[in-house]
Amino acid sequence: MIEGFVALYIFMLAAFTGYEVISKVPVILHTPLMSGSNFIHGIVLVGTMVALGHAATPLEQLIGFVAVILAAGNAVGGYVVTERMLEMFKTSRGDK
Amino acid sequence: MGAVMTVINIAYFIAAILFIVGLKQMSSPTTARRGILWAGVGMVLATVVTFAHPELEGAVNYLLIVLGIAIGGGLAWWSGRKVAMTDMPQMIALYNGMGGGAAAGIGAIYLLQADPETASDVVLAIAVVGSLIGSVAFSGSMVAFAKLQGLMDKTVNFPAQQWVNLGVFVVTVLLGLSLALSGGDVSGPVLLLFFVLALAFGIMMTLPIGGADMPVVISLYNALTGLAVGFKGFVLDNPALMIAGVVVGAAGTLLTQLMAKAMNRKLSNVLFKQFGGGAGGAAEEVTGSLKPIEAPDAGIMMAFANKVIIVPGYGMAVAQAQHKIWELTQLLIQRDVAVKFAIHPVAGRMPGHMNVLLAEAGVPYDIIYDLDEINNEFKTADVAVVIGANDVVNPIARTDPDSPIYGMPILNADEAHNVIVIKRGRGAGVSGIENHLFYADNTRMLYGDGQKAASELIAAIKELG
Description:
The complex is a heterodimer of chains A (96) and B (465).
Chain A lengths: L3 H19 L7 H11 L3 H10 L4 H38 L1
Chain B lengths: L2 H24 L5 H19 L8 H24 L5 H26 L7 H29 L11 H20 L7 H19 L7 H23 L2 H24 L4 H6 L22 H9 L3 E6 L1 H6 L2 H13 L3 E6 L9 H9 L6 E3 H4 L8 E5 L8 H4 L18 E6 L19 E5 L2 H14 L2
Parallel strand pairs in B: 1-2, 1-4, 2-3, 4-5, 5-6
């Protein structure tokens, strides 16, 4: 169990980290970056797996199942789309 | 803590590091590709070890998990591969909404399972807040997706809309409060009503927002989903969710602010004031007339210029004209014309959208400039070619304080000696505001689909030999 204040510290440090990591990003990468961060919150998949994993009633299983589908879509879709966008940046540099 | 849990926690720890390093690398063009790869490795690692999580029990549940991942992942992989580059913004909205829905689902299960004996008020409250944010991000993103995909054409407005929305929000929060203070004795109907209203609020909040503001809204929902995921991490005691969610929440918030700033719009105005819906936009008078030009004349104008600045907008994306535009650019460069691209921060449907499309066509970085770098150069440009852009070159943003876009930094295309506007029809832009640039004395209108017009220009210049 993560103690309340430790959790609060994690929250604060993670928030600063997110802010700092993004602060010097060129405009050209805004869309891929939004897409990339969209992929990263696809980690919610892990949470839905645990939630469905200890679902006890059919209702909970149904909600959990839908949640796993949605989360897997978030993670996989986010990755594919980001990767495709960044791939184009590579070819354009190769041309130069 | 058992040995299995130790291994899982180490894997989560590594995943969290990979996410942060990946995000950092994604913020620079040279390392961006490696960045998404690292983050992907982290995601696979975290997902795989979770199968060994001691809280997973029951063969049926395992089966459902595998099935769910296969279905959701398969559909997303297929749709993500297939979608055209121009449709990226709505796909991001769609996938983001799914994440928000998943976070809300975790919250629903937690609240259903809450045990009055062990439930803590703080955790219940966090679960409720996370569920509220996740639900709003889910339904809001779906509306954003529908709007950008063209499934839903118009912004919806009705009298006292903001008050109705506020009312729904207040009731939702009150229901959430009663859930949080229930001490774990959660009532089914209240829970259901809470989720229904939270979803409804997400829809109602997004309905009145116009297309021009969509990028900011999608970015906001992206940040909200991150935050919701972070909260679910606290509920589930899962540090990987906590860190990844909150990092994205903070990064997304900053990204949203950068976008809103680029449009010179306050976030509160985006959300709570209808764009161009009021009295300002409609009744203004425009002097002058629209003066059409044919492609051959426009081609000659460009071929004998010293300096041409191309201003692409969403219209170029819709027409898939970026490849033709690059071909045109190469022809001009061969004739020793200096060609530069000027990208407004919010050109297209998302910041950086145009850069992605031009990169796809093969346009090198060093001739693409953003607003601050190039705005002083329009004065010395012989021709400014505006292709499919509208609001971002509307001089009214500088001159008319009553205009809804007043104060938005614009590209000063009107300062070029000649302006050629390639445009499909005579309508106004996404904001619905008349563009005074189109009526200016030095502006000529080249009507037609962007790709067709670019092809005609290429043919015209080739004929010159």
